[in-house]
Amino acid sequence: MEKLQKNLQELGKDIADVLEEGVLAGGDVVVRAAQENSRKGGDDFPHRITGNLLRNLAEVNPVSVEKSNERCEVMVGSTMNYAMRLEKGFNDTDSLGRRYHQQPRPFLRPALDENTDEIEKAISIKLQQVIRKYK
Predict the structure, then answer these.
(1) Mind listing the pLDDT tens digit for each residue in 77-107?
(2) What is the separation of C-alpha 95 from the centre of its chain, rounded to a whole number of angstroms?
(3) What pTM value is reported for the model?
(4) Local structure of 101: helix, strand or coil
């Protein structure tokens, strides 16, 4: 019984670390898909003019990882000042007094929504690796 308790405690610690690896792997899936969306352009995705958004997605990810005993989450995105405007649209006046009616051209949310199976698989693979150690 003592050995089982010790293994369960170690498993809990390992799972927390592996869960972080898993969500990072899932975040990488979203980043790759968002980059692909940025490459596509067209009516549904942001128009690519300079490629700064595409390069920035690769450079800053993951933006952050938050981990606790109950959960682990990764935030991906862009630090480009116009990324949120592209994702959500912008109907307002900017700091220079220019008025915009910019329609949303999301690239991150579709990357998440269209790849949930691959994200879950990436997390599952990492978790299976640690569970096998204790069989």
Answers:
(1) 888 888 888 899 999 998 899 998 988 989 8
(2) 29
(3) 0.75
(4) strand
Residues 18, 38: Cα–Cα separation, whole Å: 30
| Cβ atoms 108, 94 nearer than 8 A | no
Q: In angstroms, rounded to a whole number, what is the distance separating the alpha carbons of residues 110 and 43? A: 14
Q: How many CB atoms are closer than 10 A to CB 8? A: 10
Which DSSP state fits 47?
A: P
Contact 5, 56 (CB under 8 A): no
CA–CA separation, 31 and 108 (whole Å): 8
Q: What angle do CA 16, 20, 23 make, to 5 degrees?
A: 130
